[in-house]
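A quick aside before the break. I want you to see a complete sequence-to-structure record at least once, exactly as it would be stored in a machine-readable document. Don't worry about memorizing anything.
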Amino acid sequence: MAPLNTNPKAGVKRVIEFARLQQPGDRADGNESRRLLDELQSKVLDLETERQALQEALAKLEESRNHYTDMYDHAPVGHVVLDNRGCIREINLTGAALIGGERSWLIGMPMAFFVVKSDLKLFLDHLLRCKQLREKVITELGLATKNGAPTQVQLLSIPHQNDDHTQYETVLTDITEQKRMEKELSLLYKLNLEWAIAADMAHEIRNPMTTVRGFLQLFREKNEFARYWECFDIMIEELDQTNAIITKFLSLTENKTIDLHYKNLNGIIKDILPLLQANASLTGKNVQLALGDIPNLLLDEKEIRRLIHNFARNGLQAMPDGGTLTLKTYPERAEVVLAVQDQGKGVTPGALEKMGTPFFTTKEKSKVLGLAVCYQIAARHNAMINVETSPSGTTFFIRFKHRQT
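That is the input. The structure line, written in tokens, reads:
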């Protein structure tokens, strides 16, 4: 049997050619044949027009489908469809990137496999509540990543009944940066509160000290206490030193007006390098620089000198003899980064949480306001401080926003 012809235009053309080859029986038949031929040719034109219109419609549909596929795959949030067992049935490219795997590999994998162990119960409760309540459920948890640092995400799931099974349409939103900012703001609020409490306490201590000093000065001027004058002088001197420390502390709690000028961090670091090297050599340590090509920044030079000195001193104190402190600068997107890296033993998670808090220190002998002052200086320069630590050392990253000159 001959195959069925699927091209209507070709079929009609063959009919027309066949009709033209036929010899008409009489004149009437000839006129009728010509009429039929004209009608067939008209139909051919109509069919051709419809075919072209259909091809154009199909092309637009394909273009639209590709467009919406791109929008789905590259949406700013991840989209995952989970089955009733919590396995991935469908996922877009953004979601695959958040989880950290190829889409083809992720299909069929249990979503729980990618949740950090400490949040696994949160995820299972999330699915259970979604199934039981039959409504939108939102949960925040961490996803394990290849580099070891968990990604904080928000899960928004809506249940759908598919045949006899429930599936969960889930949106994954990366909130890692949001959580980091919340933590920074919480720390700044805590710092301001603790500074305010400490300043109030300092005033309360200062007032009775002033009274004691006044009476000591009064007794010092009386001849009957002449044999105690040397003791009075020592006590007055110690009270004056304590008062000077309190005055210095109170000056730190004030909202200072900073004197900003366009300066280059590299120049400031080079200026204080001899002092840093002198301090390091006293304990058999080294200071090295790795300065990149960076733009000028709006800085208060005196405050930045103090910030660098405090971070450097903290790093030197954290290292054993022979250690090397490294100061780096480099541009990163719209920021200029100053990194201070030591070769100490690292910071424990508990101490890391309290980093920058006034009067907190991990050292037996330390000026405990150093890092707290650094956080205040950074805040006045609209800069952020991040810390990375490991058993091989700790690095402080001070990130300055770059404003075009």
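Two observations worth writing down. The chain has a mean pLDDT of 82. The chain has four domains: 8-72, 78-174, 179-253, 261-401. We'll return to this after the break.
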